[in-house]
Amino acid sequence: MSSRREAILGALFQALDNALDANVRRNEVLPEKVPAAGLVILRDGDPGEPDVTLNPRTEFYAHRVEIEVYVPRDPTGGGEAALDTLLGSIGAALRINPSLGGLAENLTPSAPETGALAIEGAAPVLTARLVVTVEYLVSDPLSD
């Protein structure tokens, strides 16, 4: 049986993978070539320090999961519209089920940080990074 944290990360991965045309990976290194439809990498992130209540002992986490988004820059120097469309699709996927089937209390995405990345020997790509705060409760952070 997996922990609540792992179940949440798995459900978040599945939600993105099912909703997006882009390739979705988890904790993957950036490949040399980004697919034309884009690439989304889910990073497990940081659960942070929990707020603890007693009787019964419950830990409340605001886990900061990172999502990295990559789209190839088109030959004319554009690609911003494709990046924006993919970010909009991620937002829509997160809104479909913000409790991830009852595993989480809520999902709150941040605004994306965008930029460009030059990869040696490959075409440049446009990037975005956003943080999704996943709020959840557990009685045991290692098994619940």
Provide keyphrases for this structure.
144 residues, alpha+beta, 7-stranded mixed sheet
Overview of the molecule:
The chain is α+β, with helices and mostly antiparallel strands and 144 residues long. Helix content is 23%, strand content 37%. The protein is built from two helices and seven strands. It has helices spanning 4-19, 80-96, and strands at 23-26, 39-46, 51-53, 58-72, 106-109, 113-117, 125-138. Strands 1, 2, 3, 4, 5, 6 and 7 form a seven-stranded mixed β-sheet that branches. Strand 6 (113-117) and strand 7 form a beta hairpin. Helix 1 packs across helix 2 (80-96). The radius of gyration is 17 Å and the shape is elongated.
